[in-house]
Amino acid sequence: MNSEKDIDMPARPRLRLLRHLGLAAVLGLGGGAAWAQEIVVSAAASLTNAFQAVGQAFEQAHPGHKVTFNFAASGALLAQMQQGAPVDVFASADQPTMDKAVAARLIAEGSRADFVRNELVLIVPAKRTQTPAELKDLESDAYKRIATGTPASVPVGRYTQTVVEQAGLTAALQPKWIFSESVRQVLDYVARQEVDAGFVYRTDAIHRKDETRIAFAVPTQTPVSYPIAQVAASRQAATAQAFIAFVRGAQGQKILQGFGFSAVQ
C-alpha cells in the first residue's frame, strides 16, 4: 500500500522527553510539594484539545497538582510505556490498545473504565466542490488520495479498515491510501488539501470546521469508545486516581461533551 508520513517527533526522542519529565519530578525541580504531585497523562491524539481544557479545570479544582500531557496515537503511547516511559494515566481511543496494556501488566488492576464515545466520519477539504455521499463514492477517480491512520498503531485506521472491508471496497481503495501517524495528521492532510478525503473522528472535524467539511458519518460495528486507566508503575497513584475520577465526574464530562464527545451509554 502507498503511504505518506508527516514530520512528527519520533518515538525514541519522545520517550527521552518523558523520561526527562519523570526525572524532573523525582528531583523536585520547579518547586517543592506542588511539583511532587505532578502526573503525566498519555492520551490519544483526538483528546488533545478536550484534555487540555480538562487538565486546566482539574488543576484549578486541585491546588498543588499539575498535569503534563503527552498526546500521540494510542499505539505509539503503548509502545512508549512498554519501553519504560514514566506515565501515570493512559487514555486510549480504542479498547484493543488498552487490552494490550492490560495484558502487558502496565495497568493498575481495577482502574480501567470507559469515559466517552466518539464517531467515525469522512471529511473533505472545505473548499472542495464535490462531496461523497457514501463509501462507494470513494471508488471514483475524483478521490485519488484518501487519508486515515496507520491501522497497526492508530485506532482510527483500524476502524476505517474494518468498515472498508465490510463495504467490499478493500481492493478498490488499496492504491489510494495515505497513512498517517495519528488522527490529527489525517485532519491536517485534509485541511491543507493534500488529500481528497480522510477518515477522522467527529470531534476532530469540529476542531477544524473552517477548513474541513463532514461528508457523512460512518457507522462502525464496534462503538468508538475511550477507556482510561491508572498506570501500574505510577508514583503518584492518588493523584492519578483523582484525575480519572475528575474526567469521569460531572465537570469533566461537561467539558468533554463541549468538545463533541458523547457520554458512555
Structural class computed from helices and strand pairing: alpha/beta
Enumerate the spans where pLDDT stays under 50 for 5 or more consecutive residues: 1-13, 20-35
How far from one another are the termini? Answer: 37 Å
Q: How many E-type strands?
A: 10
Largest sheet: number of strands, sense, barrel closure: 5 strands, mixed
Radius of gyration: 19 Å
**Overall form:** globular
Tell me the β content: 15-25%
Strand order across the biggest sheet? 2-1-3-10-4
Helix content: 40-55%
* H-E string: HHEHEHEHEEEHHEHEHEEHH
- The number of helical segments is 11
**Mean pLDDT value:** 89
Please sum up the structure shown.
With 265 residues, the protein is α/β, with parallel strands linked by helices.
Provide structural commentary.
- The protein is of the alpha/beta class and 265 residues long.
- Helix content is 40%, strand content 21%.
- The chain is built from eleven helices and ten strands.
- α3 links the parallel β1 (38-44) and β2 (66-72).
- The longest helix is centred in the first third of the chain and has 17 residues, at 11-27.
- 44% of the residues are buried.
